[in-house]
């Protein structure tokens, strides 16, 4: 393998960091992420405010959030209604065989930014 190929493969390196919704957010770059991916993380209503705060902190206007989830209970839909206060949310896909939804969200452009 040539050196260029090695460099392309080896950089940039992924960094893994533990995150609890709403805690120590100052250790994560505000708006510093291109993508936020979440699989089956919307199900505990008591965590919804912290989860929303975390997404708000991590995302810039350009960050794309992709969330896959089952909407098992009405309360799970409540999270997406909460999200719509800050983000434009769009359902990209529903897989009926697995009862899984995939949502895309991006920060709403605030009127003050227009
Ligand atoms: C049902 S599991 C899904 C795990 C994995 N994404 C998957 O699809 O197999 C829910 C995950 O949400 C995350 N989670 C739940 N509450 C959390 C919280 N308060 N802070 C951080 N992560 C949390 C944990 O990583 C937990 O494993």
UniProtKB/TrEMBL annotation:
What protein am I looking at? Protein N-lysine methyltransferase METTL21A
Which reaction(s) does its UniProt entry say it catalyses? L-lysyl-[protein] + 3 S-adenosyl-L-methionine = N(6),N(6),N(6)-trimethyl-L-lysyl-[protein] + 3 S-adenosyl-L-homocysteine + 3 H(+)
**Annotated family:** Belongs to the methyltransferase superfamily. METTL21 family.
Query: What GO biological process terms are annotated to this protein in UniProt?
Result: methylation
Per UniProt, subcellular location reads as: Cytoplasm
Point out the signal peptide segment: none
What GO molecular functions are on record for this protein?
A: methyltransferase activity
Q: Which Gene3D superfamilies match?
A: Vaccinia Virus protein VP39 (3.40.50.150)
This protein's species is Phrynocephalus forsythii
Sorted alphabetically, the keyword list is: Cytoplasm, Methyltransferase, S-adenosyl-L-methionine, Transferase
Q: Which Gene Ontology cellular component annotation is one that this UniProt entry carries?
A: protein-containing complex
């Amino acid at each position: 393998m040539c050196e260029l190929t090695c460099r392309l493969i080896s950089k940039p390196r992924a960094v893994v960091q533990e995150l609890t919704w709403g805690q120590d957010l100052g250790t994560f770059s505000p708006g510093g992420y291109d993508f936020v991916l979440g699989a089956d993380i919307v199900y505990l209503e008591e965590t919804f405010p912290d989860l929303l705060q975390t997404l708000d902190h991590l995302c810039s206007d350009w960050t794309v959030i992709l969330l896959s989830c089952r909407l098992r209970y009405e309360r799970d839909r409540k999270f997406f209604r909460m999200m719509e206060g800050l983000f434009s949310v769009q359902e990209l896909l529903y897989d009926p065989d697995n009862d899984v939804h995939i949502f895309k969200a991006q920060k709403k452009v605030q009127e003050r930014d227009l």
